[in-house]
Fold this sequence. Notes:
The chain is of the alpha/beta class. The protein has twelve helices and twelve strands. It has helices spanning 3-14, 19-25, 30-44, 61-88, 101-107, 109-118, 131-139, 186-189, 204-213, 227-235, 282-291, 297-305, and strands at 49-52, 55-59, 93-99, 122-128, 145-148, 158-166, 168-173, 194-197, 220-224, 240-244, 256-260, 268-275. A hairpin with a 2-residue loop joins strand 1 (49-52) and strand 2 (55-59). Helix 1 (3-14) packs across helix 2 (19-25), helix 1 packs across helix 3 and helix 2 (19-25) packs across helix 3 (30-44). The model has no long low-confidence stretch (mean pLDDT 90). This is CysB family HTH-type transcriptional regulator. Pfam families: HTH_1, LysR_substrate. Residues 1-59 form the HTH lysR-type domain. Belongs to the LysR transcriptional regulatory family.
Amino acid sequence: MNFQQLRIIRETLRQDFNLTEVASALYTSQPGVSKHIKDLEDELGIEIFVRRGKRLLGLTEPGKELVEVVNRILLDTQNLRRIADQFASRESGHFVVATTHTQARYALPQIIKWFKTDYPRVHLALHQGSPVDIAEQLVAGEADVGIATERLDKVPELVTFPFYRWYHAVIVPYGHPLLKVKDLTLELIGEYPIITYHEGFTGRTHIDKAFADAGVVPDIVLSAIDADVIKTYVELDLGVGIVASMAYDGFKDRNLALIPVPHLFPESTTRLAVRRGTYLRSYALAFIEKVCPEIGEENLKAAIQKQNGSE
Length: 311
């Protein structure tokens, strides 16, 4: 048994059992991948994969249990490297934060500025993507920390902490009829074309639920992952915008008016997530404590080290 065999098992799941893609991802040959799998099965005396001819269709029952152990072994191997790096070079390294455009643009700039000032020798990479992308990067060990509003707290391999809470707001050009309404309702908003976030981004599920609960079918004429795009088309008077309240800047968005409506849409919580069982370098812990100062380092470490489903 060797680490290459274990990496092949893990990558086979990531590539949906396509051995050609596994070989490409691991820079090896497909026959080599197949031989490693067969050698490991022979050594263990079990079949890991369900087969139809030469094709792999899924995991056998023992294969499902084996994969959990493989993932733990590879995670602990990564942790060993991080521990060694921690003591060899405490103030330098590589730190990956996966997040959405909204968080990178509006919530994180001052935190990133602080981090780069305090840890100038740490290479910080910001990976922008959807909440699903962020969760996948964390589980795969491709990111150290993830920050998003959706999805992260639904993934059992991740532990999450609340970052901040916020509400959606309505934005319209100055002179819009809605600015004259004293008590804005979803029914009134629904009389206009709506421009808001794409499904799966920045609390869109809360927007959809609010309209559904009110029995209103909104005419969403344009959706985007970027609040700046939404504001651009609202400014062109193509519709009423619904955005995260922190995405509005009174100076930069001076052609638009913000209408706070915390009574119309549920509160949203943006969360920070890390993979359970991950060893975090000191600068990663410092970053998390800066984002979530109420947690405390000891509670943070204890939460991360809990296994899936354990109390």
